[in-house]
Every structure is written in structure tokens, then in C-alpha cells.
Design brief:
The complex is a heterodimer of chains A (259) and B (274). Helix content of chain A is 84%, strand content 0%. Chain B has a six-stranded mixed sheet, sandwiched between helices. The chains are: A mainly alpha (259), B alpha/beta (274).
């Protein structure tokens, strides 16, 4: 039993080091991306289109619904404690600092993380990755880096979009409960908003984008030979991304509030 | 094996004590082989004997568990990533199962080595080169379709075109006649003839006796991951007598051919005793 545990721990540590090595390789190739002639602009454009543009609808609906739910809960609970004036602060903090980046990252993981892992895994099985190497193309710089950049850019843009729609959703519900002019609503929101709220949300979006893209690509490349490994890679990409996103979220929040 | 050689004298690719183990399965077992320059080396062996892995190790696509790969006398695993990419860009590889990029058109699949090696080329010129290369191989269909729209045989032709379009100095072909009909095979033979004329170094794994008979300057026999023999054509066939069966027997029955041994063949035959 001890030998089995030891072997499992050793495998996990090896896998961790491989993952870190892969991450640094991605960072290194990213720094060279725009200077190279052999760049995958087409892959980058397609990634932004798929991860960013095609996720606008689902993120928009989710954001409006979350904003609406928050205002309904807040407007029914806060007056009981005589704290109605906190509504706008809670909206800003919950949406821009937490739910905006977190839910956007979950949507991106579910849509694009699985897509990247299964697509790269299929390419490994079909020897397409070897074919890239055989013509002198580095698969990390040609396949992973455009996905990495595309996903990080999409994550940042979608988070801003989510925040706008989340706050818009709450405005729509406010009109149903206690109609107020949009100017007044915006002024109250802006008064409650601090630069640190926006920066915190964007920092999280950046970190989550890095996590999802690197984990998904790594899992895609970890497929060995069999097509049955491809769905497993997709599942691992989602599971590991979710865990790392939540851990990173807790860590960033802890640093900001403890600091 | 020569201890010291200058880069100009060194063979284009040399494998030294190469062993490949995947899990508990040994694919190659201490293979030593020198692929002589400007000649066609053909490796024959039964299915699962390790031919494809041997080719991939030589091309730098598979890293062996033990052993070294020397490219022009220099250890491939001490290359910088730039040097490794340059080696791969200057070589062509034809995969057994075509390995075309499925999300890319036939035109871009074949043109990719040109985009990398000759980035300044005009699109029109690239289109012309791709079309002419495909036509030489007997493919005259649309080039703006995806690989999934082609038959397996047509995909193989496209894969061959991708491997040779940039006129690489070393060409690796893994079972190039697999999935090809007789007409396509004839076209391939014409192309191989012209590659030999322009003195490319060609390494082929196959069980096609016609191909081996017509083009092999050097012949190798691999079985269960061990290189049993490698040398100039007739020498190797003579050595492989005790192994004769199937395709080797058919090759033997076609008779002797002129043998042109070189330094490299002497090294190989010295190391790969039956």
C-alpha cells in the first residue's frame, strides 16, 4: 500500500513539474509570438471568435439574470437591517470583483476549455502535431500560444461585458420594484465603485484566462495514442481548471483583503 | 564507427544504440544505422517490427529512451530549438496515415513547408507550385477542399506532396505506397526517380518489393525492433538469406543488382551482423 501511495505521489509531483515546464514554455513562446514570421494569426483570430464572440450571448443572459437576482435579494433583505444604501456597493463588489470574472471563467472553461483539450487531443491521435514538428513548426508557438492569447483577451473582454450586463440587469429589475431615472442609478453605481474593484476583477480575469488556456492545452497534449483518451482529457481540463480557478480566486481575494 | 569526423564528411543521419521503450513494450532495441547521403535507403520488416518508430527517431519526431541521433555528425539532442526546427524544415516526412491537418485546406496543407521555408513567396506562385507538385503525383482535383473530402488514397498523395514540395535534402517516407492504387504508385515511382536524380537523401520504410527493387541503394531488415541487416542492396539480400520469407523472398527472386558500397555502407554492414 505504501509503495502504491509513494508511486501515486511521485506521479503527481512529476506531472506538476511537467505542467510548470509547459507553462513556462508557453510564456517563453508568447514573448516571441509577434516577432516571428511563422505566427498563427489565423488560429488567434479563430480563438477570439470562438471563445469571445460566440460566448457573448450566454454571458449576456447569465449576467442579466445574476444582476437581477442580486437586486431582488438585496432589495428584499437589506431594508430589514436598515442598510438599503449598501445595495449599490454590494452590486459592484459581487459583480465586478467576484461573479463577473468567476462565472465568465466557468463559461469559458465549459465551452472553450473542453474544445481546446479535445481538439489538441484529436490532433495528437491523428499525428497532426507530429506533422507540424516535421515541417519545422513548434506546436507550442503555433497551436498553444494563439489559443493562450486569444483566451486571455477574450476572458478580459467578456468580463467587462459581463459586468456591464450584470449592472444593466439589476437596473431593469430596479425599474420594476422602484422606478428611478437611469442617471440616478448610474450616479449611485459610480459613487459606490472604486478603481480597485475594477482592477481586482480584471486581475482575476487575467489569471483565470491563463489557467484555463494552459490547463486545457496541457491536457490536450497529454493524450498519448488512443482516441478514448480524448474525452478523458476534456474532463480533466474542466475539473482541474475549476479547482485552480477557485483556488486562485481565494488567493487573490485573500491578498487584497488581508493586505 | 568513426570516432572523429568533420561535419562535411559526416552522414546526414546516424542512429547510435537507439532503444525505444513505450511502457513495458520495447519497440527498438539498440539500433545502429547510418543513412548514406544522396542515396535511397529502404527498410523492410513485418508489421510491428519498429519501422515507423525508426523513421520517426531519425527525423527527430520521437525521442529514444536510450541512444543518440547524429545529424551531420552532431547530436540532435544537443541542438537548440532553432537548429532542431531548421533540421526538420530541411527534411520532409511522409506519414503512414497521411496525418493531414484536418482544419486546413489541401492547398495550405501542401504549402505549409513553403510558408515556413520561403515566407516571401507570392500566393500565386505557391498555388502554382502546389498544383504542379500534386499533378506530378496524379492528383488533379480541387485544392481548396478539406482532407475529409478526399479518399484515403488521395490523402496519401497530398501527404507525399507536403513531404517533397520544398525540395528537402532529406526525405523520410513511411510506407509511401500504402493506400495507393497502381496508377498512383506509378506516379510516385516517377517522383522518386526524379528525387534520386537530384541527389536527395531518401529513407523509406515499406514492404513494397517493387519500390525496394527499383529504388533501394541500401536495404535494411528490421525484426522485433532489432536491425538484422543494413547494407547495399545485394549485400543485404545475401546476408538476409537465412531470414528469407515473404517480401524478402520475392525481392531475392528478382535477381542481383549492381552494388555501389560507400564508406557508410561498410560502417553499417560492420555493425549490423545477422
Amino acid at each position: 500500500m505504501f509503495s502504491a501511495i509513494g508511486s501515486s505521489v511521485r506521479n503527481q509531483i512529476t506531472s506538476l513539474f511537467y505542467g510548470l515546464g509547459f507553462f513556462f514554455q508557453v510564456l517563453k513562446e508568447t514573448s516571441r509570438f509577434f516577432r516571428r514570421k511563422q505566427v498563427g494569426y489565423k488560429v488567434l483570430t479563430m480563438q477570439i471568435l470562438f471563445t469571445g464572440f460566440e460566448a457573448l450571448a450566454v454571458c449576456g443572459i447569465l449576467a442579466v439574470a445574476i444582476g437581477a437576482a442580486l437586486i431582488i435579494i438585496g432589495s428584499s433583505q437589506l431594508p430589514k437591517f436598515g442598510q438599503s444604501q449598501l445595495m449599490y456597493s454590494i452590486l459592484i463588489i459581487v459583480i465586478t470583483r467576484e461573479l463577473g470574472p468567476l462565472l465568465t471563467a466557468f463559461v469559458i472553461t465549459a465551452r472553450s476549455g473542453t474544445a481546446i483539450a479535445t481538439q489538441l487531443g484529436t490532433m495528437v491521435v491523428n499525428h497532426e502535431i507530429e506533422a507540424y514538428i516535421s515541417v519545422g513548426l513548434n506546436p507550442i508557438s503555433y497551436l498553444v500560444v494563439p489559443r493562450f492569447i486569444g483566451m486571455v483577451v477574450s476572458m478580459l473582454v467578456l468580463t467587462v461585458y459581463f459586468n456591464l450586463f450584470g449592472l444593466l440587469g439589476s437596473f431593469i429589475v430596479v425599474q420594476l420594484i422602484r422606478p428611478i431615472p437611469i442617471q440616478e442609478y448610474l450616479v449611485e453605481l459610480l459613487r459606490a465603485m472604486r478603481v480597485s474593484d475594477i482592477l481586482s476583477g480584471m486581475l482575476k480575469a487575467l489569471i483565470f484566462g491563463v489557467i484555463v488556456s494552459v490547463v486545457s492545452s496541457y491536457q490536450g497534449f497529454s493524450v498519448n495514442r488512443a482516441s478514448t483518451e480524448i474525452p478523458v482529457a476534456g474532463i480533466k481540463a474542466v475539473g482541474q481548471s475549476f479547482v485552480l480557478i477557485i483556488l486562485a480566486d481565494v488567493f487573490v481575494t485573500l491578498v487584497q483583503y488581508a493586505g | 564507427m568513426p570516432a572523429e569526423r568533420s561535419e562535411t564528411e559526416a552522414p546526414p543521419v546516424e542512429l547510435i544504440d537507439v532503444t525505444v521503450i513505450n511502457g513495458s513494450y520495447q519497440i527498438l532495441d539498440q539500433v545502429n544505422i547510418v543513412f548514406p547521403a544522396d542515396s535511397c535507403s529502404v527498410i523492410m520488416g513485418t508489421a510491428g517490427s519498429g519501422k515507423s518508430t525508426l523513421l520517426k527517431v531519425a527525423a527527430g519526431l520521437t525521442i529514444p529512451t536510450h541512444g543518440k541521433v547524429l545529424v551531420a555528425g552532431r547530436d540532435l539532442y544537443h541542438f537548440t530549438s532553432r537548429q532542431e526546427q531548421d533540421y526538420q524544415a530541411d527534411s520532409g516526412f511522409v506519414f503512414q496515415d497521411s496525418a493531414l491537418w484536418q482544419d486546413t485546406s489541401i492547398l495550405d496543407n501542401v504549402a505549409m513547408p513553403l510558408y515556413i521555408n520561403q515566407p516571401g513567396k507570392e500566393k500565386k506562385e505557391i498555388y502554382g507550385l502546389v498544383s504542379s507538385c500534386l499533378r506530378r503525383l496524379g492528383y488533379d482535383e480541387e485544392v481548396n477542399v478539406r482532407p475529409v473530402d478526399l479518399s484515403i488514397g488521395e490523402q496519401k498523395l497530398v501527404s507525399i506532396a507536403r513531404g517533397i514540395i520544398h525540395e528537402p535534402s532529406i526525405i523520410f517516407m513511411d510506407d509511401p505506397t500504402g493506400n495507393l492504387d497502381d496508377d498512383a504508385t506509378e506516379h510516385l515511382f516517377e517522383v522518386l526517380g526524379s528525387l534520386k536524380t537530384r541527389k536527395a537523401t531518401i529513407v523509406i520504410t515499406t514492404n513494397n518489393t517493387d519500390l525496394a527493387y527499383k529504388f533501394a541503394d541500401y536495404l535494411g531488415v528490421i525484426k522485433n525492433g532489432k536491425l538484422l541487416a543494413f547494407g547495399c542492396y545485394d549485400e543485404c539480400l545475401a546476408k538476409a538469406e537465412m531470414l528469407l520469407s515473404g517480401s524478402l523472398a520475392r525481392l531475392k527472386s528478382r535477381g542481383q543488382r549492381a552494388c555501389a558500397p560507400t564508406d557508410a555502407s561498410e560502417e553499417n554492414t560492420g555493425r549490423s551482423e545477422l
